[in-house]
Amino acid sequence: MQSHALESIFFKLYSETSLVYLTKYLNVIPKIRSNQCHCLHFPNRNIIQTRKYASHRDAPKSFSKAVSDAEKLVGYPTSFLSLRCLLSDEVSNIAYHMRKLVGTKHPLLKTARGMVFDGKNNLQIRGLLVMLVSKAAGPNSQAPYTEQDMISGVYPSQRALAEITEVIYTASLIHKGIVNLKDIVPEDGPLIDMEFGNKMAVLSGDYLLSSACSGLAKLGNPDVVDLVARAIGDMMTAEFTETFETTNTSQISTRFTDWLKQTRLSLGSLLAHSCRSAMTLAGHSKYLEEMAFSFGENVIYAQQLCKEITSFTNQDEQTSQSPGSLAPVVLFRELASEDEMSYLLNYSPDSVYSYNKLLNVVRRTGALEKCQDLCVQYRNKAIASLDCFKESDAKLALINMVTAISSIK
């Protein structure tokens, strides 16, 4: 079967996330060759009916429901945003070689699976939020396009920007799968597997970044290029300002202001600058640009706080991240007495008993409750940033999504 025919089939089959092509490719080729695959229809593109606008307290708590409603508004699943560059000969070759990693312990495959399904938020949302903000802002007579050029209320350049945002974020996640070979132990498997996995992570991540840069140039807007370049620069800076690398909880002296800065650089900057760029592309006012930027930044703060609170309090949601780097423990250091700080000195990451003691003392200091309050505050700030937009289904969808991704279970 020819390469272009395979790409056509993949485009019809998979509507999950931007990296799903890489992961599904590893297992799907034999099925295609044996004619066992079945084509799926695209989701319904009809716009959801206008309904009574509700407060965020009435918003659906289901993340999947909020995403589904939002995708209907923007015209098609945002999981297709990155397919243009993923369905290419270069990525096909990378995916083919990635099959060699199956059965190894290199984290690149785990990274890919996590981007498809991470236990709760099983979809990437940045591109979707960018398009919803674009739709909520509406058309502008100063835009280089006519209102007739809009597709589901979004200008073509804004849709391209949403695609670029997803590609950049995907590239950053892939690059995070690079292993420090100095830390390899025999239990991790052969060194040659780790070296090969690192090469795949570097090549695939760099290819996606180059595709994003090419897409930025095609937008033909120097201001937008500058804004997105700042976001990429912030993400790179975050890799060198990371203060949570040690697994020894007592050695981490970071304050909550440092946590905020690191979260902004590594996660918040991309969405904030992308939302602002969407306003710039449509020629909207500086005020709308500032509000869109504020929305993107505060959404990430709320989402990350929710994620880290859940990770700290629910052992089923535990990640590879050290508990000492999580927001509740960072706040705990600022509130704890000397006696309470001794729990950090005696903390053992391999002991369930030690973990439960740390959890209890963090609860006792009120750090967990303060963290939850901050999550609500940043959620409310994000929603308040939307007051500059008139009431619409897009605005309601944004409120629903912010509420869903920052709801602590």
UniProtKB/TrEMBL annotation:
SUPFAM superfamilies to which the protein is assigned, alphabetical: Terpenoid synthases
Domain of life, per lineage: Eukaryota
GO cellular component, one term: transferase complex
GO MF, one annotated term: prenyltransferase activity
Pfam families: polyprenyl_synt (PF00348)
An individual GO BP term: ubiquinone biosynthetic process
Matching InterPro entries: Isoprenoid_synthase_dom_sf, Polyprenyl_synt
Keywords: Transferase
Similarity-based family: Belongs to the FPP/GGPP synthase family.
Protein name: All trans-polyprenyl-diphosphate synthase PDSS2-like
